[in-house]
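tool=predict chain=A
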Amino acid sequence: MNGILKRGLHQGINVTWTLGKVIFPITLLVTILQHTPVLPWIIDFLRPMMEMIGLPGEAAVPLVLGNALNLFAGIAAIISFDFTVKEVFIMAVMLSFSHNLFIESTVAGKVGVNGFLISAIRVSLALIAAMIINVTWNGGIEMAKYGMIGTQDVALDSWGMIVLAGLKKAIGAIIQLAIIVILLMVIMQFLREKGFLITLSNRLEPLTKVLGVSRNTSMTLVTGLTIGLAYGAGLMIHAVKEDGVSKKDMYLAMLFLVACHAVVEDTVVFIPLGIPVWPLLLIRLTTAIILTVAVSFVWNRIDAKKRKEKMNEHSHGTI
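tool=predict ok
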């Protein structure tokens, strides 16, 4: 048992270091940018786009902050304005697909998946979903009630205080990351060495078959669904080294997770905003499954065509 604990701690520290090198500087940079004209300029630039998806110009604030930072920053901005239930629901769906964009997309790139592609997919899903909801849903015109959520704004009067606040936020993010990842890697090591991981993979085989991925990606999918994309990516980094996850499976699993990850946390946090959360969960899960299955189908057809062409070339060469 001590050996399993040591090996799990070692893997957890390695993964934390890999992800921390991305999370720390980006968190610090974005925090500092909040206190410069950069983010306000982005917000003004996006106002015309907000109108295209049925949102007022003020919606650019939570969307920019949610994408630049995290869901909590986006929610904190939402409750600073008066929005209708429909407007809040549209923003909730968009932020569910596309939030914490810089960190999560960059971390996803650490497993060999193109970070720019991941960002483009997430933003595209958010915009498409917003357009569809805006056109198809005629309800939600009443003003949203935000319950007991409150914000605590601290005035930062100098660049020293701004940098210090950024450092605190970045260090806090790393500590939280380390606690979750190290604990997770210890559990993973125990499950791996005791054979539970193989049993779990076998039981999840129907899901992996539907998605078109190998069984050795099942734990990554489960982790990403329950904990989040960043931590799922951390496990995938480990899985690539230990379990021989193929490039195709990496892309498909990450594609599924960018559309639907941290489904429990990312759904529960929107409950106090007074919006219907079950449709939010259903939209994300359905989109993830359809998107992944479709890409897997196309990918398999392309691979089959290449193999057929290669066989024909070999046959002609033999003749």
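Residues 277-318 form the longest helix (42 residues). The chain is about 75% helix and 0% strand.
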